[in-house]
Write a structure and sequence with these properties.
By secondary structure, this protein is mainly α. Helix content is about 90%, strand content about 0%. The chain has one domain. The chain contains three helices and no strands. The longest helix has about 70 residues. About 0% of the residues are buried.
């Protein structure tokens, strides 16, 4: 402590502000690293999870369209059966392509 008493006020203030600047730089560096980690996690969510949701949405859409075709088949009671079976086959292929 004797050392600090022999140093002028200007030097003590300069060392104090210098120490504060080092601490601020450390906080900024820590924040930048944390931000990079969060960015990678967000990219993973966007690139992987959103793609999975799109595939599942396509599968659900194909399934819903198959149910509509089957309902129409019941309503028409066999009229246009070949056309309906072709539509269902195309929808099954689309569903399995999403799988």
């Amino acid at each position: 402590m004797e050392f600090l008493r022999n140093v002028s006020v200007v030097w003590r203030l300069g060392m104090g502000f210098g120490l504060l600047l080092l601490l601020v730089a450390a906080v900024v560096a820590t924040g930048a690293t944390g931000s990079a980690v969060q960015k990678r996690a967000m990219q993973q969510v966007v690139e992987v999870n959103v793609a999975k949701v799109r595939l599942l949405s396509d599968m659900l859409d194909a399934n819903n369209q198959m149910m509509v075709v089957r309902r129409e088949m019941l309503i028409r009671q066999g009229d246009g059966l070949a056309e309906d079976e072709a539509r269902i086959a195309a929808l099954v292929a689309r569903y399995e392509a999403s799988w």
